[in-house]
């Protein structure tokens, strides 16, 4: 999707974010940088959104403490990827959280070298949490991180696969059009 596109149908979450792990990190709905509102109210809705974002999982929808742990994982991973996108060093605390989650998911995973599909498949007990940790590991190893960007308006992250000056918004429908309208109002006020 280009900055100047006139496409009115919202593109699906996979092409918007560029990776299932990013679709997971982008399950916050606030417009700014607060990350205080989620795009889902219950675990089942989250699971639907993750699948729409490209995640392959056979896990049940998370409830209670599982959902809480998933949200903690999301925020630690957001902090790490946001730092990577900005060229900053991720905080030690968030790095350690992610490191221990990855080691634990790998310890339980089945290893399938040479087989079609992912190298590590989540173990039977890890549930959706381990599916997400392994998706994050896949993103970290994908070689795409130099193209990782954070939306100028909100906290959504995406892989910028375009050429030219680069994409500034998570999507035109969510942030680009509103940011441009705001810029137009600001310029009009300034010249009035
Ligand atoms: Zn945005």
Fold topology:
Blueprint: H1 13-17, H2 20-25, H3 43-52, H4 64-86, H5 92-108, E1 110-111, E2 120-121, H6 127-140, E3 148-150, E4 157-159, H7 172-191
Antiparallel strand pairs: 1-2, 3-4
Helix pairs in contact: 4-5, 4-6, 5-6
Bound molecules: zinc ion.
Give a nutshell description of this structure.
The chain has 192 residues and is mainly alpha-helical. The chain has seven helices and four strands; from the N terminus they run αααααββαββα. A hairpin with a 6-residue loop joins strand 3 (148-150) and strand 4.
What does this structure look like?
The protein has 192 residues and is mainly alpha-helical. The protein has one domain (13-191): Jann2411-like domain (Jann2411-like fold, Orthogonal Bundle). Helix content is 49%, strand content 5%. The protein is built from 7 helices and 4 strands. Helix 4 packs parallel to helix 6 (127-140) and helix 5 crosses helix 6 (127-140). The radius of gyration is 18 Å and the shape is globular. The structure holds zinc ion (ZN). Zinc ion binds at residues 151, 153-154, 156, 169-170, 174-175.
Strands side by side in the biggest sheet: 1-2
Strand content: 5-15%
CATH superfamily assignment?
A: Jann2411-like domain
Which class of secondary structure composition applies to the elements?
A: mainly alpha
Low-confidence stretches: 1-11
CATH class: Mainly Alpha
CATH topology: Jann2411-like fold
Order of helices and strands: HHHHHEEHEEH
Q: Total number of β-strand segments?
A: 4
């Amino acid at each position: 999707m280009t900055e100047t596109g006139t496409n009115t149908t919202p593109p699906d979450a996979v092409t918007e974010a560029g990776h299932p792990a990013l679709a997971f990190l982008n399950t916050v709905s606030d417009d700014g940088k607060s990350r205080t509102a989620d795009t889902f109210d219950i675990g089942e809705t989250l699971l639907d959104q993750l699948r729409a974002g490209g995640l392959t999982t056979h896990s049940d929808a998370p409830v209670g403490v599982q959902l809480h742990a998933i949200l903690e994982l999301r925020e630690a991973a957001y902090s790490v990827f946001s730092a990577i996108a900005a060229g900053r060093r991720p905080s030690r605390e968030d790095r350690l959280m992610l490191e221990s989650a990855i080691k634990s998911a790998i310890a339980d995973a089945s290893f399938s070298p040479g087989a079609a599909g992912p190298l590590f498949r989540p173990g039977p007990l890890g549930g959706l949490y381990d599916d997400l940790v392994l998706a994050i590991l896949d993103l970290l190893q994908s070689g795409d991180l130099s193209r990782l960007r954070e939306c100028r308006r909100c906290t959504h992250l995406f892989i910028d696969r375009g050429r030219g000056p680069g994409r500034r918004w998570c999507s035109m429908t969510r942030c680009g059009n509103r940011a441009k309208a705001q810029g137009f109002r600001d310029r009009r006020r300034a010249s009035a």
